[in-house]
Amino acid sequence: MIYKLKSVLDADVRQKNVVLRVDVDVPIEGEQIQDESRLNAWFPTLELLLKNDAKVYLIGHLGRPKGADEKLSLKPVAHWISQKLQGQLVDENLGSFKGWKITENVSILENLRFYKEEEENNDEFSKKLSELGEVYVNDAFASAHRAHASTAGITKYLPSFAGLRILKEVEELSNVLENPNRPLAVIIGGAKIETKLPLVEKMHAFADFVLVGGEIAENDKILLKVQHENVPDRKSVLLVADLTQELKDITPKSAENFLQVLQGVQTVVWNGPMGLVEEDQYAVGTKTLADGIANLNCYKLLGGGDTVSCIQKMGLLDKFSFVSIGGGAMLEFLSGDRLPGLVALE
């Protein structure tokens, strides 16, 4: 296994103050959480800490605010936790931070990205976070590829451990990276072109087939092909989808071509939808692909917030062998990159 993480199961947390980093970057409309997958993923770690009479300070981020932004407040997440624990929200100052007390033993800080020091991995900011606790536990796999104050900096000041979800993610992804059943196909879609393109390049050395759809396929079709030709020791076959006339979904023919390739594979890794799935008429390519993959008899790994939400709405989530809560973190892990949030827990 690539990482040898210190586990929360081996940590002395009984009656301790614990700072727990969690994934709370979830889709919210109005004040309603649209997909609870990421929240449910770390909840067993919180329950484990509470069984040990720990006092837990939850920390995390939502979106990409430029300073404090009420629309990106973590209050809806605090409400969700409050309902799960049958608590009651009370505004509270937590050290140098604003937040909410939920129960006697659980509090949550407001969105850490309201402070620019979080993404700067500012040392003084990391220290202030650490002053809330005696032990630090990270269970936010989706943020593990970021060297931020709450994922890396804080570990300099507290004994630090991996939560249950991170341990599971590392176990599953290590198996795929180190000993996958082949042929292996990676499907990459979505719109985060600036982050996805370098990762596509790395996939050419890992995968047998790289299938690219979504906005990245349209904007970078030529670049993707040139990149593929220039990769030394490449082992992959590249297939880039064509988009429909509106450029918001892949064509039925491309979806069919993808499924044709996938018929012969033993491992499928999928990250990123094929179209603008927020609008049903542009989710057709993603639905066709999801239906086809659901019927494959092989190991199927799914990741990325938008992809997971979309497949969940289609009722097909249980057809996948493992659903990662990481998007970029999952792809970077499978690229062989060392993730700063995990390195800090070794």
Question: Which labels suit this protein?
Answer:
346 residues; alpha/beta; Rossmann fold; six-stranded parallel sheet; 35% helix; 18% strand; globular
Secondary structure blueprint with pairings:
Blueprint: E1 17-21, E2 28-29, E3 32-33, H1 37-51, E4 55-59, H2 75-85, E5 90-94, E6 97-103, E7 106-109, H3 116-120, H4 123-130, E8 135-138, E9 160-162, H5 164-178, E10 184-188, H6 193-203, E11 209-212, H7 215-219, H8 221-230, E12 237-240, H9 252-262, E13 267-271, H10 284-294, E14 299-303, H11 305-313, E15 322-323, H12 328-334, H13 340-343
Descriptive account of the structure:
The chain has 346 residues and is of the alpha/beta class. It has helices at 37-51, 75-85, 116-120, 123-130, 164-178, 193-203, 215-219, 221-230, 252-262, 284-294, 305-313, 328-334, 340-343, and strands spanning 17-21, 28-29, 32-33, 55-59, 90-94, 97-103, 106-109, 135-138, 160-162, 184-188, 209-212, 237-240, 267-271, 299-303, 322-323. The strands form three sheets. A seven-stranded mixed beta sheet has the order 5-6-7-4-1-8-9. The protein has a six-stranded parallel beta sheet with strand order 12-11-10-13-14-15, with helices on both faces. The protein has a two-stranded antiparallel ribbon with strand order 2-3. Strand 10, helix 6 (193-203) and strand 11 (209-212) form a beta-alpha-beta unit. Helix 6 runs parallel beside helix 12 and helix 9 (252-262) runs parallel beside helix 10. The longest helix is centred in the first third of the chain and has 15 residues, at 37-51.
